[in-house]
Amino acid sequence: MSAPRAIIQMLTTGSRIVYRAFGDAYKQAMANSAAAQTAAGNMKATADGDRMTRASGITVEESTKILNIEDANSKEELSSKFGHLFDANDPKKGGSIYLQSKVIRARERIEMHWAQEKLKAEQEFAEKEKEKTEAPSDGSDKQQ
After folding, report:
1. CB 72: neighbour CB atoms within 10 A?
2. Percentage helix, strand, coil, to 5, in the chain?
3. Which of 24, 38, 56, 110 has a CA that sits 20 to 30 A from residue 66's CA?
């Protein structure tokens, strides 16, 4: 076999390998994209459109699991578990900054949940008060 022919054959074989590799990489990228879209759809369904979950990237349920608490509305339990886990994962004491940040994010998400629940309660109270003030005016109009 001559040298030019060997070079052409190596280039042809090499280009086939590279072409197949790019084709396989493209197929894998498309599969990953489809999986990411499915996961995003599942998170949306799980979060039920919860804006706070999308913003923080963590649900209240995940936060309660991270902090090992039963009730997300128990401020005393949250405070004690947070303090213990925060100190246990202190990098100065040989802990993990990653785990410590997860504990912080879990606490923040539960605090967001409390603020969200308080806002809902205030809005419901305001609507009830508005209905109460509008109800007597309906009865007085009919007396004329």
Report:
1. 18
2. 85, 0, 15
3. 38
